[in-house]
Amino acid sequence: MYVIPLLYRISSMNDHVSITRLHYTFQSVITKHNILRTALYIDDTNGNIIQHCLDANIILDGDMKSNRLTIVNIDNDNHHQVNETIAEILNQADLFDLSKGRVIRCHILRHYHQSQDSITYENDDLLTENDHILISIHHAIFDGASTSIFLHDLSLVYESDESQVRLSMDESSLSYIDYSVHEHIMDMSLSREFWHSQLEGYNLARQLSLPVDRQRSSTNHQRSGLASIAEITFDSEICTSFLNYASSHHLTPFQLGLSIFYVFLFKLSHGETDLCISSINANRYRNELQNMIGMFVSTLPYRAELDPHWSFNEVAKHVREKCLSILEHSHYPLQHILGDNQLTQSNVSFLEIMFDFITVSKEVEYLCLNDTNLKQISLEQSLEMSKFDFSVTFEYNPLSDNKKLSCSLICSRDLFEKSTISKIAQRFEYMLKQLFKTQLSNAFTTDTNSSINKASLILPDEAEEMKLVVFHRLENIVNEAPASFAQARIWLDERIRFDPEKPQVAIYNMPFIYRMQSSHTLSVKQLHQALQITVDKHLSLHTSLTFDAEMNVLMQRVITRKENHTDMFSIIESTYETDEQLNNILHDEKRNPQLFNLAQGLVFRCHIIYYQQVSSNDLLSDKDILIFNFHHALFDFPSMNIFLHDLNQAYTTGQLLYDDNTLLRYLDYAVIEQQMAMTGASMFWFDALHDCKLDQSLSLPFDRYHLTNEHRTGHATSISFDFGQDLSHHFLTHASSNNIPLEHLTFAICFIFLFKLTSGQTDLCLAMNINDNRYRDELKSIIGLFE
């Protein structure tokens, strides 16, 4: 896991490298740099980790293999063998032995044909086109900045004679061990105070809320090391905009990349503002350390306390100031930071999230051995190991034509599936494009003045999910399908809110009450026929809801005439003489739970209430009452407009024109609804309700409280009042002048009232029905429950 691989390939057929010369060069560089032959082990007496520089003559004696150089022959005809061989090498348990100073290895991957004399070929000293050199170095003695120093010395020694090499090795020069000793005696009291102030008040054990697929076991802290990886390659326009922004705002690419990463974590964690991650610092704070091979890199906590109302410009400024302040104290060891806070590496959350920015230099991109230029080859993603739960690394390569700026996400497969990281990478790229986006003029500008709250991780195709859905007649659905989400909510609500052992009160009866205008009449017979025609067209008005225990799903089923020889709805007639009698009838229509039977599909009824006596001439007069009553599980308020429109047409013309074979049904909607992609909607609601205590009641001035095992009685206390002419006028004027829908304005007033009623509670969550949820034109002619 802590191997730094350097892979180079001879790319020209005219180039070659001498294995003997390379072996000598390799030995010479190890001789020059003490750290490349340094052992690390634990002192049994005091438990300290000790480094011991081994004698060059002892460690380099012996054949090539013991001197860390191994030749591996690769079949030219097997294109996958190179990657397979590299994977085997890097995964060798005995690749290194820190306790014995075996910290660097060189493998030569040489191609040959099966027909070739392998014995003769093995004695051939020259490497040629497509041969590879793999140098593996343990991270404990080597960091990224050491690479260019190491490659420079390899190149220099390979091209020089032995006497020149010896002259270049100054035994009196500063070594890594000297640095280590100096590091332990430095006065770090100011840095200790700095890091204490940086982390004060932060819960270092708190895990950032990331969209993991699974949690790490609380008992097993072992990592597999396996990685889920995604890579983003930014186009030239974004690269240019990125660099221009950094330059104009006096930011380093690292600081700009880190600013973007903070905003991304802010959105990914649903608005978490106190963010602490880890990043690395070169830590070569003195000139004499610049040309020394060793492990200088310091892993440090980078804490940012964001304001969600900040613009990206303000975030970038904050990050720049943070990085500059850290620079002065980057030498303070992580062990001290953790020790000062009584922590260990195993229980610190910020160490699991890593950010880095790498700028590729020419000195690393190519290895020059005499006149032969070997090009660095990137390792296959499958060879990457995950040291952290979640790491993001930007790479800027000015030498590349088509991949100048890229970003890789390397995350632990213990927590994240590959598909999850791939989707997270898409969201990261999309968010970055929102900051650095193309305007209509095709000039690349940055949208960095807006609040970071406005940045969105919902991808364009997810935002368009609803528009991509096609509601159509489903040929495979005859008369039965799973209930819609809305139906299931109503059905379940009826069963859990009230005590089944006590007389129930209906809560989902929907009576609509009408009376004839003066001098108008209505034919009861004609009404009956019109109702039959309307009910025949709208299947929801004769659909049952039953729970299928075997499938564990609520099903809806259209009841047809063949199954039920009686009418699919009922017409009830009664009379009244007094207002009290009428009110009792109206109350019964509203509260009687026996009027409907969902299991039998009896969900609609018509109640004709005659004044004093039933009409003898089959006509309703202006004193008679007409009630259309529906069960809410199959009907919503906008459905009434559809019902009345079709009822009027059926009453007037005696027919409704439609094709029963192609007509879109509520059944079709319910099936397609459950097949719809809802990723964007899911992200929106998860983000909106994150950290909302949904199971916590508001602190209202109750007279008594519900017991945990107590059912509702259904009894209500209600009061209504009139706003009055002046207040109503001001209310309507305010809504109109500010272009605010009336329901939004009343909702805002309700929130303010609850804020005061709860003595200042600011996190308020309440429910509101979206009555007209027919978000597509083809749904606007369907009777059913869409709210």
UniProtKB/TrEMBL annotation:
Pfam families the record matches: Condensation (PF00668)
Q: Name one GO molecular function term.
A: catalytic activity
Q: Would you indicate the residue range of the signal peptide?
A: none
Q: Which GO terms describe its cellular component?
A: cytoplasm
Where in this chain does the record put each Condensation domain? Answer: 14-454, 479-786
GO terms (BP aspect): amino acid activation for nonribosomal peptide biosynthetic process; secondary metabolite biosynthetic process
Put simply, this protein is called Condensation domain-containing protein
